[in-house]
Amino acid sequence: MQIVPTLNFGGNCREAIQLYEKAFNGKITCLVTYGEANDPAFHPLLKEDQKDYIYHSELVLNGQRIIMSDHVDIAFQTCYSNFLTIMYDTDEEVKRAYEIMKEGSKTIYPLEATAYSSCRVVFVDRFGIRWGIMTE
């Protein structure tokens, strides 16, 4: 069994997956739009601009997969109670990833040392996804 985190967006999944690929040295392994998928369950619901929304995408980070897509059936809402934590070996890796992702974000806990991490930051990115980036 695998647990695969899944992130949903409100029309900006393509921009988000490209940013996460850069920030976390990942690799996009799948990217399918609603127009390409032509899913009969969603096709009648689509507005013209939503045909380029992401139906299904996969990002691999250090051998671990994250699934991402755009919602077309319900309005996107930011969720502050659930988030992904990215663990790094060094403070420099934490700072590098945060530098790439911080534009337009809302900081919850600034870059700082804690009792359990030499460097940690928690924030909601510009797409409404909450992240924790820290050292082990």
Please provide a written account of the structure:
Helix 1 runs antiparallel to helix 3. Helix content is 19%, strand content 36%. It has helices spanning 13-23, 34-37, 91-101; strands at 6-9, 27-33, 54-61, 64-70, 84-88, 106-112, 120-124, 130-135. The radius of gyration is 16 Å and the shape is elongated. It has two domains: 6-70, 2,3-Dihydroxybiphenyl 1,2-Dioxygenase, domain 1 (Roll), CATH 3.10.180; 84-135, 2-Layer Sandwich (Signal recognition particle alu RNA binding heterodimer, srp9/1). The two termini are 25 Å apart. It is of the alpha/beta class and 136 residues long. The model has no long low-confidence stretch (mean pLDDT 94). Strands 1-4-3-2 form a four-stranded mixed β-sheet. It has three helices and eight strands. Strand 7 (120-124) and strand 8 form a beta hairpin.
Strand and helix map with partners:
Elements: E1 6-9, H1 13-23, E2 27-33, H2 34-37, E3 54-61, E4 64-70, E5 84-88, H3 91-101, E6 106-112, E7 120-124, E8 130-135
Parallel strand pairs: 1-4, 5-8
Antiparallel strand pairs: 2-3, 3-4, 6-7, 7-8
Helix pairs in contact: 1-3
Mean pLDDT: 94
Order of helices and strands: EHEHEEEHEEE
CATH topology of the largest domain: 2,3-Dihydroxybiphenyl 1,2-Dioxygenase, domain 1
- Enumerate how many helices there are, as a single number: 3
SS content category: alpha/beta
**Over the alpha carbons, how many angstroms does the gyration radius reach?**
16 Å
| Quantity of strands, as a count | 8
Number of domains: 2
Largest sheet entry:
4 strands, mixed
Distance between the termini: 25 Å
CATH class group of the largest domain: Alpha Beta
Indicate the overall shape: elongated
Unreliable spans are: none
**How are the strands of the biggest sheet laid out side by side?**
1-4-3-2
Q: What is the CATH-assigned architecture of the largest domain?
A: Roll
Give the full name of the CATH homologous superfamily of the largest domain: 2,3-Dihydroxybiphenyl 1,2-Dioxygenase, domain 1
Helical percent range? 10-25%
Strand content: 35-45%
